[in-house]
């Protein structure tokens, strides 16, 4: 919006006009009030001066009467008081200062009264007396001075009346002038611009898009008019070039859809299961075509950020094709340590001195005009880079910026794909380790098959007892006895099992873990105990308890705890006990055998 200068501002003009008018009205009204007050004071002064003459004549009359001392003294006091009131009277105004002639005349009257009149009318002589002609002349002269004072005051009063009429005339003229000026200014600065604006809006609504407002002044209405003209220009431009603008918007929308399609296809491709070589090769080929580049390469940094674990290139000069054959340092093309540590694209001119002081090979300088580095970042960690080489000079056009922004987005998706492949590889390695661990646990003892068979047959026997299938019970017991005999024959250890015919209310998971713990315990007995007799006791009162005892050599369990030695068999039993929320107690004394007790609470 165009800024209005102060000297052209309509609001400022109106404000100044109002201030000037109010100031003038206050000044002239103040003068009129001051003159009115002065006229009021002048009326009082005329009365005071007139009373002086009456008082003099009264005093002269009293002197001719007997016993006139007291009345004469009162009249003299009255005369002095009136004279003092005249001296104190305020005759100043805003137009004329205090009249010096009036003050001088009052002083003459005062001195004349004290020096010449007091001796004549002094009340010292109580008897009446007749005044001489000389004394009468003196009194007449004194009265003439009083008349002169009255005339001076009346002249002053008349002058004030003239000024009051003048000021009133000015006020009337100012009101009339203000009224006509207000009408003229209101029409010129407000009504006329509004009328022009209304007419232009009406023409525009009728379809006349070429209608414009002529800007005359530089006030607020000029800004409104300028805004109207711009709006009319835009409307006319839209109306005349609507088809072209729709075409441009359609092209822009198609480009945006094309970019989204590329992004979607590339993202889908990157997140499919492909080998890393295939992903990088295809990604570089598509990015070179998308950016209209003449060559490029993709490099992934190792953990130390000093070498490239993998490098794939396309379209590079023959002198640089060695990149496909060697384990490359990260500084082969340029020193990556001086690059900015952020994922934004970096533009480098090959034939000019760059701010980063990169060392660029001569083959690259000869073949290309510039290249762009797109760092590959994931979770604030640089894992590689994509470099595109261009033979044509950089244009810095809007299309180029959008393309590079799209490539930057694709590089971010590439980083996610590379990290996902690393995670997938780690998951496979972890799965292999877990599988090896399971195989190690499964192969820990070959006798586990026999014990599992024994457990299954015991369950079949339990079901047979519940259904009172005594033939089936006999078959299962016979089979269990055969398994025990075969176990004894394999291990040469006498095994005794008690309370196998009880009912144990265990879940399938608990039954499975109990069998595994039992087979692990018997495996340890076979390999380490050197015993001749083992006993397995099952009880099921409130809790399920399995107790395994042998008379072997035993071991010192404290040594294992203090040295924190890892025993595979004991660790396996502890892990399986934790899975079913059980408790396992191991007691062993050297040369006095070992006892393992498994407790599964009923809860």
UniProtKB/TrEMBL annotation:
The keyword Repressor does not apply. It is an enzyme of class 2 (transferase). GO terms for molecular function: ATP binding; phosphorelay sensor kinase activity; protein dimerization activity. It catalyses: ATP + protein L-histidine = ADP + protein N-phospho-L-histidine. It comes from the Bacteria. Its EC number is 2.7.13.3. The keyword Transferase applies. One of its GO terms (cellular component) is plasma membrane. This is Sensor protein. It comes from Commensalibacter intestini.
């Amino acid at each position: 919006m165009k800024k209005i200068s102060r000297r052209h501002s309509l609001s400022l003009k109106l404000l100044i006009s109002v201030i000037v008018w109010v100031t003038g009205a206050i000044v002239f009204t103040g003068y009129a009030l001051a003159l009115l007050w002065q006229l009021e004071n002048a009326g009082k002064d005329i009365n005071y001066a007139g009373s002086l003459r009456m008082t003099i004549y009264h005093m002269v009359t009293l002197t001719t009467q007997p016993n006139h001392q007291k009345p004469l003294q009162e009249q003299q006091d009255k005369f002095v008081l009136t004279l003092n009131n005249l001296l104190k009277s305020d005759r100043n105004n805003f137009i004329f200062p205090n009249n010096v002639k009036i003050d001088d005349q009052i002083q003459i009257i005062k001195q004349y009264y004290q020096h010449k009149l007091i001796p004549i009318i002094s009340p010292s002589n109580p008897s009446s007396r007749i005044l001489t002609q000389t004394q009468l002349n003196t009194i007449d002269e004194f009265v003439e001075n009083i008349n002169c004072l009255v005339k001076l005051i009346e002249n002053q009063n008349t002058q004030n009346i003239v000024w009051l009429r003048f000021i009133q005339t000015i006020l009337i003229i100012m009101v009339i002038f203000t009224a006509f000026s207000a009408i003229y200014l209101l029409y010129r600065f407000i009504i006329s611009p509004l009328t022009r604006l209304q007419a232009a809006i009406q023409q525009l609504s009728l379809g006349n898009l070429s209608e414009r407002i002529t800007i005359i002044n530089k006030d607020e209405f000029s800004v409104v008019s300028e805004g109207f003209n711009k709006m009319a220009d835009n409307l006319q431009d839209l109306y005349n070039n609507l088809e072209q603008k729709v075409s441009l918007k359609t092209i822009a929308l198609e480009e945006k859809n094309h970019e989204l399609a590329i992004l979607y296809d590339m993202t889908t491709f990157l997140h499919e299961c492909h080998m890393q070589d295939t992903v990088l090769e295809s990604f570089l080929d598509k990015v070179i075509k998308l950016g209209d580049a003449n060559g490029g390469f993709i490099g992934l940094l190792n953990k130390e950020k000093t070498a490239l674990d993998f490098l794939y290139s396309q379209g590079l000069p023959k002198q640089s094709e060695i990149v496909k054959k060697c384990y490359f340092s990260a500084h082969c093309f340029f020193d990556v340590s001086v690059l900015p540590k952020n994922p934004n694209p970096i533009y480098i001119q090959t034939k000019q001195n760059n701010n980063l002081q990169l060392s660029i090979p001569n083959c690259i300088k000869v073949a290309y005009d510039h290249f762009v580095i797109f760092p590959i970042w994931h979770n604030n960690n640089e894992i590689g880079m994509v470099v595109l080489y261009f033979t044509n000079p950089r244009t810095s056009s809007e299309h180029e910026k959008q393309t590079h922004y799209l490539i930057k987005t694709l590089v971010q998706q590439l980083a996610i794909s590379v990290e996902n492949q690393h995670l997938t590889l780690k998951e496979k390695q972890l799965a292999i380790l877990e599988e090896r661990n399971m195989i190690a646990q499964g192969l820990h003892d070959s006798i586990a098959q026999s014990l599992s068979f024994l457990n299954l047959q015991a369950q079949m026997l339990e079901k047979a007892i519940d259904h009172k299938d005594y033939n089936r019970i006999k078959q299962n017991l016979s089979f269990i006895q055969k398994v025990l005999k075969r176990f004894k024959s394999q291990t040469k250890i006498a095994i005794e099992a008690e309370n196998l015919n009880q009912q144990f209310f265990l879940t399938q998971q608990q039954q499975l873990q109990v069998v595994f713990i039992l087979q692990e315990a018997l495996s340890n007995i076979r390999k380490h105990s050197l015993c001749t007799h083992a006993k397995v006791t099952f009880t099921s009162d409130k809790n399920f308890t399995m107790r395994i005892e042998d008379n072997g050599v035993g071991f010192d369990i404290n040594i294992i705890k203090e040295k924190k030695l890892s025993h595979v068999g004991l660790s396996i039993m502890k892990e399986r006990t934790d899975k079913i929320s059980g408790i396992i107690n191991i007691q062993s004394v050297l040369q006095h055998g070992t006892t393992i007790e498994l407790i599964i609470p009923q809860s």
